[in-house]
Amino acid sequence: MPAPLIEFPADDHERARRFWRGVLGVDLAPRPAGAGSGWESDVDGLRLGVHERGPGPGDSASLPYFVVADLAAALERVVELGGSVIHPGERWAVCRDSEGNPFALAADP
C-alpha cells in the first residue's frame, strides 16, 4: 500500500507551501493534469499536499488520503462499520470514520 497522502487546505497556498518547505524541507510542485488542483510532494515516503481552501468537506481541516485496491468495496465497508461517505466519487471519496473524523479513500491507479 502506498504511503497515505495528507492534504491541507490553505487560504494562501504560497504561504502554506513556504511553511511546509521550512518545516519539513519539502517542495510542493503543481499536480499534473488529471490529478486535481493543488500542489504535492512525494519524498522519502512522505506524501504531502496543499490545495486552496473551498467549501467542500475536505476544505476545512487536514485530510489523510488512503489508497485502496477496490474503492467501491472499501466504501461499503466504511458504511458497514459505522462510518459515512460524505463525498462519493469514482476515483476518490471523502468519508467520516465511526467517530466522525474526516478522511479520504483513493482508488489505486
By oligomeric state, this entry counts as: single chain
Q: Which structural class do the helices and strands define?
A: alpha+beta
Distance between the termini: 12 Å
Low-confidence stretches: none
Please give the largest β-sheet. 8 strands, mixed
The largest beta-sheet arranges its strands as: 2-3-4-1-5-8-7-6
Silhouette: globular
Overall mean pLDDT:
89
How many helical stretches? Answer: 2
Computed CA radius of gyration, to the nearest angstrom: 14 Å
Written account of the structure:
With 109 residues, this protein is α+β, with helices and mostly antiparallel strands. Helices cover 20% and strands 38% of the residues. It has helices at 13-24, 71-80, and strands at 5-10, 29-30, 39-43, 46-52, 63-68, 84-87, 92-96, 102-107. A hairpin with a 2-residue loop joins strand 3 (39-43) and strand 4 (46-52). The longest helix has 12 residues, at 13-24.
List the helices and strands and how they pair.
Elements: E1 5-10, H1 13-24, E2 29-30, E3 39-43, E4 46-52, E5 63-68, H2 71-80, E6 84-87, E7 92-96, E8 102-107
Parallel strand pairs: 1-4, 5-8
Antiparallel strand pairs: 1-5, 2-3, 3-4, 6-7, 7-8
